[in-house]
Protein 1
Amino acid sequence: MCDPIFEYQFRLILIGDSTVGKSSLLRYFTDGKFDEACDPTVGVDFYARLMEVKPGVRVKLQLWDTAGQERFRSITRSYYRNSVGVMIVYDISKRSSFENLKDWYEEAREHIEPHKAIFVILGHKADNEDKRQVTHREGKRFAEMHGLKFFETSAKTGQNVEESFAQIARDTYQHLQDGHIRIEPGWDGVKAGFARPKETVQLAEAEGESRCC
Amino acid sequence: MSDSDDNAFASADEGEEKTPPKERAKQAPARKEKKAEKTETGASTGSLKNPKTPSKVETAKGKGKQQQRNKKGKNCGISAVQENSGTKKSETKESQKTEDPVLKGGHPDKGSGDGNREMSGFEEPEKSNSLSQPAELSGASVPKDSDQNQDVGGLSTEKKGAKSLGETAGSKANISSSVKSPEEQTIAASDRDHHTPQQEKVLHKLEESANTGSSGWGWSSWGSSLLSAASTSVQTFTHQVGDGLTTIMDTVESSLGVPDPNTLAEEDKDKDVESLETAKKEDVIDDEKKDKTELLKENQESERAERKSEEETKDTGQDVSPEPTASGGGNSWFASWGVGDLAKKMQDTGKSLAAKGQTLMTEGFDAVEHLAAGGIDVLENIGKKTYNTLAEHDPALRRTRQFLAPRGDKPNLSSSLREARDQAEQQQKQDEANQEALKAHFGTLFDDYQGLAHLEALEILSNQSEKKVHSLLNSLASEDLATIKPQLLNIKNAFELDDSAEDAAEDQDFTSLVRQHLSELELGTAPDKLNTVHQMVQAWIKDFDSNDSNHSQGTKETHEKSIQALAELTAKGVEQFHKAGEMVLLDKDKDKDCTERAHSLARLTGVLCHEIGNLSNKFVACLNKLAEENKSEDVTRMVTNIYLEASNSSTYIQDAFLLLLPVLQHAALEQAILALTSS
């Protein structure tokens, strides 16, 4: 008898302009660390964390950290389809990153269809108050206009990092419970969690074949 | 409620009783056919409000043929009538919903049929195929769900009440009024309030116990079903408690010892006929109503027939009206349970039953005295009978008592505490074992190092490229295709991995080889992560080897370390391939020949697989060394596991590599097409 380590795996994808801080945000969320210096992401990187969506129910968030650079757009687009959650990140101290929100949102929606995804808008680098170029109100209004949740986050102070991920995880879980989102073959946005092995080392079986496609 | 109908219907297994749907349809007018089906498939509660419900019932049951036979079923139970009249007032709102004017109108046969229907309700749950069928839904229907059962019971008794009112009082007001009058509702409320808490408690207990466990109707579960029926009846009785007391208690008591119930029933019947005739006259005004009444009549008659056949099989005394049997069962059961004063309560109940009859008399019914006396007599009589019947199958009612009594084997506090502690300990042990197992589980570790995610992402790219290759090939002219095809084939050939694995024992300069092959790719991807992991692994092995005899690590740790190293290295290798794939697709340098890249990647694969084999050998050597030092330990299984995972690891790397084939072909095609269009 095995207890599943997590009930579901949700694949979340972070998109947004280059250097808005997607990787930093994810690093803070998964490691609790913040690095000032950070190499630009190549293609896509991965992070993962378990999260409790309700008492006793854990889900694994598989986080796809996409490259924001324009030259990777054709690649990152390929990854939208298999995501159940999308976090669109902009930099509150960089007006242009906010202005591109709409493009990101539309692009993601277009590529995710016909599947449904939960979107969250994140105004990042919220600690950078003195360099702020986008007001909280503007960000909130954009999100509300599209019926999305909005947070201002900071990987430096940790502000709202946990909350925003918890929000998207809970919303996804709720949609799953309500049947708006379903586990479908050929779509990896949500996968059933698996029971991790209980047997001892010596009994461990080959796992190579069980890898997901 | 409709669910319970279905249940009851489903539980009908006697082929004779259950008319096939087709037959049913035949008997029904086309318009009703649909409804019959609907009823069968579980009519919604809403449909119960439909005034056409009686016809529905009729069609669903389709027992019209049996009418003739049924006429003789005039066996009349006084107490049943009592109950009917009483229950009507103690109605709950569910039953109000279903109240049907036509039902109230009733028809001549209803009165005489009542007693029988009581019986049928008691014995034949399969008849309860429609809520609008008055008597059949009495609590005896197989209780799947106690709430539901209660509802149904209440409902049926309501129907009975409505009918008997029609019989006795000439159904003046009720015939035309489809909604229950407010007075009745208030009475119902007050009746409820009159229950003594004790009674309530006992009844609930009875009902709960009776309801649990008995899921089918049959002789096997007869005991529990009987009890369920009994509890329902008792409840019905007690609904009347108080009401009677407040009104005409004295009359009731003075009326003890009057004629036999059967005589009384005869009288009732006559009256019923009269009253229902009146009802009929009124019904003539409304054609549809009449229609319904007739249908209802037929239905009830057929039901009686059913009841009769049931009776024969079950060999229950005909002269004893079933409803009292039930209550009597409750009575004697109480006594046997040792709650003495409950018996007294039952008597009170009987009295108030009579009282209820008295209330009816104010509407033109003069047999209250008989009712009262009959109630007591019959109660006594059938109480005995029920006890005997129960005891026959259950000596000293041991089983019944065990079934109904509160659990005596409740665990005490200390034992439950002990249990909880044991459980917690076990859980903790299990968790620890889990954690241990995870430390050396290749698949899990590979996933933790994001190898799986990279493989999946690479797969996405690969699939996309494959589609693209197909569509591009289709769009090409045949001569262009001919020039491009050799290159695609060359790339494909480069992906043919030769299985002739070199001797993995040979050390190789992993870092420089990887760097070399990656630079051949000219994709600008650096093998930093891969090399870092590799260096860590090498360092660990070196550290192990440098300590000749006294190793701090046990075999277990060594094994864990080896699996973890393999998993991490594999994950980073897969990541490297993923990145290479991404860069190939993005690469702006169109001069680079894809075939060459394919070869470089193939060589890289070879290096990685070689390294995996080499490292696994080294780890196994470490394990063997430890085993030599510590003779008692058997490392064979660990060694096997390491080799197994090493082969898994190579499979992952090769899979990742093979996923790059469409990507490279895609890139090559685009290059070629670009060259074609520009020239």
Note: The radius of gyration of chain A is 18 Å.
Protein 2
Amino acid sequence: MTAAQTMFDEQAPSENGPVLRVSDLTVSFPSESGRVQAVRGLNYEVSAGEVLGIVGESGSGKSVSSLAVMGLLPQQARISGSIKFRDRELLGLSDDQLSKIRGKRISMVFQDPLSALTPVYTVGDQIAEALRAHGHSMSKQQAHNRAVELLDLVGIPNAANRAKAFPHEFSGGMRQRAVIAIAIANDPDLIIADEPTTALDVTVQAQVLEVLKTAQEVTGAGIVIITHDLGVVAGFADRLMVMYAGKAVETGQVDEIYAHPRMPYTLGLLGSIPRLDAEERQPLVPIEGQPPSLVDLPPGCPFAPRCPMVVDACREAEPPLSDVDGSEQHRAACIRANELIAEDPDAAEVFEVEAVEEAAIAKVPREQRPIVLSVNELVKHFPLTKGAVFKRRVGTVHAVDGVSFDIRAGETLGLVGESGCGKTTTLMEILGLDTLMGGDIAILGNLTTSLTKQSRREIRRDMQVVFQDPMASLDPRMPIGDVLAEPMQVHGYSKQKIASRIPELLDLVGLRAEHAERYPAEFSGGQRQRIGIARALALEPKLIVLDEPVSALDVSIQAGVINLLDELKAKLELAYLFVAHDLSVVRHIADRVAVMYLGKIVEIGEVDGVFGDAKHPYTQALLSAIPIPDPVAERSRERIILTGDLPSPANPPRGCRFHTRCFTFAALPEDKRQRCLDEEPVLAAHGDDQQAACHFPRARAVL
Amino acid sequence: MIGFLARRLVNYVILCLVATFLAYLLASLTFDPVAILMQRNPPPPEAAIAAKRLALHFDQPIPLRFVHWLGGVVHGDFGRTVTDHNVGDELLPRMGVSLRLFLVGVTVGVILGVILGVVSAIRQYKISDYAATVFSFVILSTPVFVIGPLLKTGALQVNDWLGTEYLKFTGEQTPGFDGSWLASLGDRLRYLIVPTLTIALQQIAYYSRYQRSAMLDVLGSDFLRTASAKGLTRRRVLFKHGLRTALIPMATLFAFGFGLLIVGGTFTEHIFGWYGMGDWLIVGVNTQDANVVATVTLFVAVLVLISGWLSDVLYAALDPRVRV
């Protein structure tokens, strides 16, 4: 216990009952097509010290309902029902009255830490401001001292100095810590965290969740955590509420819901997440279709159009939340919940997912397959310059510093690492087909440096790309047919060939031929990503480079796209270079994986080897940071929390680049440490197809 | 930071010289003051024209003439006009006239423009917002030579209504006014109101549009939500966090807007009979006088660059992210 913690009072035992009780909450907004019913009759309560997880896809009303609690919805929102905080009705209070409760009794942590702090004031001042907004007797000096204590509590090293820094001098993870410090400054009774870790890297996510736990321990507050990530809540929440189309569709204890979901939507959601701890590869459960529009919702269960268990009765009336499994704790809104109770089926059974057949080429041993892409000692440095007229070099960003790997036919290599590790730069160098700063890249045996203009164009045909953001990667003014035709026109396909190929491509990615006439704006995110994939397939490439292809999609949609990629790979014998930060997705889709840290590959090898028995401490930490959507397993895991953030690639640490954050290094005796400080480790073989760059590799169970 | 501002200042001095040289070059190449002389009837004797040419240094190449002129400027000598008056003698009074007119107009305009923009943004899509929008676009699309006379007419109405000629709009003070220091100031103020209003109206219209959109950007930002979630009242959130941040992009606009206004103020000065720098530029062109044109250009260049430098300082003061 630090001195800071003594400032929080003990949990007041006299105040029993829920801290927050929301009943019959409805929220609607005006829109051009009519009123959007964002929240439609929501009931929940949170007790002191309890963590309630609210899960749902985008547009399910989870954020709107919590902003309603804070009284932070825009003025045009129409709110009805009741929000009671400690028996005091919050709805209808004036802004002045609410501002006495906000930040003092209820506080909030938002999603994007990069924009959550005012850029023109120091972090310390912003925390002190929260203190002085409620503690009027507090002097400036007292508030400042307390702000420093709070920063220290949330794990900002050297807090007294850092309090004087401006938000732009903090990394994303540190800013989120500062926002949490503001949230707990006045010892609130309730903390609402709206997607607090979504914008962060996994290792930082693990740190921030840890800080949130500390925050809860010291304040004894009830916490509402809103997320779309079922992994995050599995280990953190006590109770769970699943939202769909503005309503709760299932509520209950976390363990119960994960073990026995009683609403097909929950079942589908759980089945749609790729699991890091999956023993064998199973197809994911995609939930077909998209969430309904909340303007003029038809009668009946809003999930009915996407539900595999739908019967006529579902379309007649919307089922209420009712007790299932004979327990008041667990409630679901489904008229067929009883059947789920009786059979307890698998998500894959209910959603009738078929396993993908393995491609013929996958049966050929790896060594005998041709190499599609080989990257050898690739180097890319960016100059750091200063001055506007006379630029002068003041440093070098070592974005990629000697990276080697190869991809063989019909194989997927996953390239993973935190933001800033150089994975995107590697990808851009490969796609550039240009002169390299160092090393070489060969595509289908052709060195990029020896290409003529003609052959470069030929090679482009064999290597295509799918981008991260499906919204931005399609020209909004081109109908889909033209989007797909463009690469073929460039490569001189005949008109007839193009005309016959477009319906073929659309069919391949699960869209219909008549979609060719429509514009991108008419498609959902998942469909657009399918169009992006169809465009990449147009020229029948051998290799597809995928840059975070599913990270912008909701989980249920993501599952469909991943299954599609799996299927296409088997059908067309494609090779993928799959860049992602989500290791669960990589585990699901990749055959081999390369882990990057500060411009170097620290571990590479076959997926089961690297994920099952990681040798490099960084890989272990990454894996350990990923939450598993299984409350029992998640709670029993021992998490490795990496300290600090990624060092600047402009000034990478000497010796082993990871030593500044390495727990193995920290545990080494003094005499052995010197080696990590002086000598940069090289990739050394461990087993058949696994290499790690560590002087002291140790096996460690992380799942 | 100090070093950065000092470097900028050096850059600006060079830019000033370049701008002035270009104006001098252009004026010298196109102007022919001797031609005017030759059109006199009866024509002046050959010797007088030759003497004039020599006095104007027409025997030297233009760059050399410029260096000669610049050498004088360094010592406070701005050369002589074609009619052989000292340019420097006229410079100070004219500068005073222009600055008096525009400093007041701009200050009023900036303050009211910011307020109007902020109010519009906060009350977006309310009647007041629409009214402010209509006002701004009407003003912005009306040339000053229409606004000026309209305001004069308005002032006449006010005077009629008051029964005395309270608002004055020709010149800058009553000729031959004699009175105490305070009375003299009051007299000048009466002459100042209408022209200042002309300038201020345009400035309000211009800045309020920018301030409105800057404020709207900030209003939707996450940090305002964080500030509200802390428990600050809406007013504090809007002003301490919102307006403070929304002023940053305006800093550049204020400074350069002011510098350039002086050049554009020619009409305003003309309409209200103020003999300022804008008016002088016209006179300079009419008399084909390169020295006057170069002097006015130098004045404007210095003003623009001082404004630019001030905007750097202001920007750095407002935004910690650019402090280096």
Note: Confidence is low (pLDDT under 50) at residues 1-6 of chain A.
